[in-house]
Amino acid sequence: MSRYVTLPKGVTEDTFTKAIQEYRTLLGEERVRIDQASLQSYMRITFSEGDGLHRPSAVMYPKSVKEVQAVVGIANKYKTPLWTVCNGENEGYGSSSPATPGQIVLDLKNMNKVIEVDQELGYCLLEPGVTYAELDQHLKKNKINLWLDVPSSSANVSVIGNTIERGCGYTPYSEHFLFSCGMEVVLADGSSLRTGMGGIPNSTSWQVFKWGYGPYVDGLFSQGNNGIVTKLGTWLMHPPPPGGYMPFCIKFPKVDMLGSIMKPLMLLRQTNIIPNACTLTSAAWEGDGTNGNKAGQAAWNLYGAVYGTPEQVALNWSYVSGAFKDGFGDKIRILTEKEAKDDPVFEYRKQLMMGVVSRQETALDKLRARGGFMRFSPTAAGRPGECDQQVKVATQILRKHGFDYISELIVGWRDVRHNIDLFFERSRPEMVRKAYACYNELVDAFIRNGWGINRANVAFMDKVADAQGASTLRMNRTIKKVLDPNNILSPGKSGISQG
Fold it and tell me: What CATH fold (topology level) applies to the domain 363-467?
């Protein structure tokens, strides 16, 4: 019987033992763990597949770039693949589970230095273990008056991890990868690369000019497996002056109003009258995770904000409120802080839209804690008809398989991220099968309609990648073979591998 929980594909137990010995010589026994208890949190699977398909063989905790480089050298020597995570708070998309069994989880949580924050130009340079809560604490401790942009479940989420997965938040800086600037990456050969202007000795513009000189390569390390990001710059927002922030909520009573909502909303977004990524939450997202009709419950809840000087806020609010009053009259309820009073949901959204780190547990957080949770994340063009049709298709498929439609639509400048949460009981095999069939049909239906998927859990990465077409697959595999000939960096991530 093997002393290991599992082994990497094609690696014998003797070879793996030699690799673990070298890793422990480098990092020490406490930072190279192979026991079941230490691996347990990295086997916490919430998606609809069996545990054995994504079981890691070990977990390692480097503390420096030099250690990461040395780890990569050993991985090449023994062909032991490394699945890189930053804390593993990847809710709805697989947590820390590797795409294939036997990979060694490389957890970068101990690389958690806030290297620099520049208040004048509004940027920071971080290591991958820094969470939103830790960056927030750093800003407060040093009296740095800059706003973060945070995802909804933000406190223990790695800033770098969320950014390179192309996550988003709710302020005007919502597109996290767009607002990143300059990476340091350890490549599969152990060398270190600084992107953008980072290759210039003593560069003064690494975190302020994204593009550098020549081809822009940062995207190769976003939702990919061509390198290990060990530093990242990201831009932070200077807050508006006092009186320059006004959150609001508009409640719409009928589901079929979505198309009519999107028409004025996209114009307000594209003109930056509403500058932040506002959200439309469904009744089930807002409540207890069910679609039951409750007295006074809205079908859609639009959360947004206007920012600027007090004069700009007043003027832009007149445009926002006027647009929806003209379109809907007395059929809708418009709430500002005055009308919302002590509503905890309004307060939660108000805080998100000014970049406050969330520690509030919502009704949906309690459902996620039950075990079975997947997020389906298609993108819609911000056209009224397309958004409306996506909701209809998704609702029909979900109901067919016995699930509620629970969604948050995050409205960008021209796109809408259509996040749909799927909850089930992992302890019941029939529910796991139902959830798999439902998610699988959602992927098929959305791809068939030309609706791309922007993020997927590890059970469906290959399927979503295949939908991108043969040319994209061929290009990704070609780049992978050149940069990572031994296929040691997160094989299978985003459907990219050498077989």
Answer: Vanillyl-alcohol Oxidase; Chain A, domain 3 (3.40.462)
